[in-house]
Amino acid sequence: MQNKKHIVIFSHGFGVRKDDLGLLTDIALAIPEVESILFDYYDVDQKNKILTTCPFSKQVKMLNNIINKTKELNPGAIIDLICHSQGTIVAGLAEPEGIRKTILLSPPFDMSLERTLKRYGSRPDSDINLEGISKLSPIDGLVRIVPKEYWTERKNVKPLEEYNKLAEKTELIIIEANQDELLPKVDLKNLSSKIKLAPLNGDHNFNGKSRGPLLKTIRDYLL
Fold it and tell me: Looking at domain 6-42+56-110+158-222, does it have CATH number 3.40.50.1820?
């Protein structure tokens, strides 16, 4: 790697903490040559086991603040992004400056609200209210609270357009999960030719045997 300091900033997915159920922490451990920055988009009340999500606009502001602070403290450093699931959309909306490479893991291309409602609506421990406060089934022991603003902003998100814009500012690599159980396959004919597609076997979080090949692939792209 170059003599310049190398930093990777991580953008985690929806309704989870900065470790992304162990995915992002495993990636950080696999690239010890660089400085990894992981942070939480959401507030967590550990006492009451509640995670409160926030709308995309707030997440975008947080990501850009982290990037700008990192650049300010590390002038001349190489800065890359690794984003997972809806964290990839946040990066697209942020349109960050000064990022060398960005890797999107399992990025959503279709933000169908109908699919989301079907996924959570049938669960007795979920209560979705698009005009108020929603409660989603727990992950990692935390009940997830979703404000109305998240659903309102989500309606206007066009992932493909955001990724194409992001590819104008950074070298962009998309690693799709071939066996993604959460996201449908979509036609990518309108995806920018500047974006490198690198499909890998694995579920949405690249669990089990797929984790090792994912870590190797990420190392190959970044180092």
Answer: yes
